[in-house]
Structure formats: C-alpha cells, structure tokens
Hints:
Layout: H1 2-5, E1 14-19, E2 22-27, E3 42-45, H2 53-62, E4 66-69
Parallel strand pairs: 3-4
Antiparallel strand pairs: 1-2
Amino acid sequence: MDDIRNGKRDSKYYKVYDTNGGESIILNWDNIKINKSNSPKLLVIDEITHYSSAEIQILSKWVNGNIIALGDTN
C-alpha cells in the first residue's frame, strides 16, 4: 500500500498505464499473496463506483465465493 500512497506508477505489485480516458492499473498477481484462510463466502459491496478496478480485482481474488455489487456501475 505504501507504493500507492506515495504515487508510484511502477511497483512489484502493479503498473499504471496512461489510456485515452485516464489511467489503467495492471496487477502483477505473481507478487500478490492473498491469505484465503479467513475469506468470506459472500461479500456485499454497496456504492461499487467508489472502488477502483484494481480494488475489485483484489477483492475477487480474496473472496472464497460470490460478490454482490450494488449501486451505479457507470
């Protein structure tokens, strides 16, 4: 998380690319370790628009079941 807080565009965990509409983040799953021992079988997310695509990717790898996303997805 320190890489993101410090505004790094390149990290061993991700790379930020400029796109026509802004920026895209590509995660490096080889360096991201997720402990699923206590992960939920269901995750409900309200206000899904407040989450970045990278955060959604991480949550989807962590949850040991389904994600229900609520709110405007635009």
